[in-house]
Amino acid sequence: MATQSQFTLKARRRGYHIITREVAENLPDLPDVGLLHLFIQHTSAAITINEAADPDVLVDFESVFNHIVPENLPFLVHTMEGPDDMPAHIKAAMIGHSVTIPITGGRLNLGTWQGIYLCEFRNRASGRRMVATVYG
Q1: Which CATH number is 43's domain given?
Q2: How far is the first Cα of the chain from the last one, in angstroms, to the nearest whole number?
Q3: SS3 of 105, please?
């Protein structure tokens, strides 16, 4: 059986943010065993799972991705929405728009150091819409 819910994350500044708790608070009751598929409905933000214990990791992610895909690249054509928009689309495509997490004992079965990240690539973003599908 599958259930699906939608919710909006609070607006955040540009950068990488651990959203594990906010996601968990917006989920329906979880089955004893199953899967959570989490999808972000945006093209200029992404979600992923990574290190959640050391906040320096969030800073390093921002630094590395800004180095790989900087703003104001002279050959970009899609520039009407500002210099951060097209780089945001590229970064989102590189990281991805969904994650799947096992559910064990009615809880998300993340590793000891893992957390769910919102990767916010726009300078001025609103709350991001999420779709959570629970199988189990």
Answers
A1: 2.60.120.460
A2: 6
A3: coil
pLDDT for 55: 94
Across the chain, mean pLDDT equals: 96
Could you give the 3-state DSSP secondary structure of residue 85? Answer: helix
* Cβ contacts of 88 within 8 Å, gap of 6 or more: 43, 44, 45, 121, 122
The dihedral through the CA atoms of 93, 17, 129, 71 has a sign that is negative
Residue ranges of the chain whose pLDDT lies below 70: none
**Structural domain boundaries, residue 95:** 2-135
- At residue 40, φ and ψ (nearest 5 deg) are -100, 130
Stated pTM of the model: 0.94
Region for residue 90 given its phi and psi (left: phi exceeds 0; alpha: psi -120 to 50; beta: otherwise): alpha
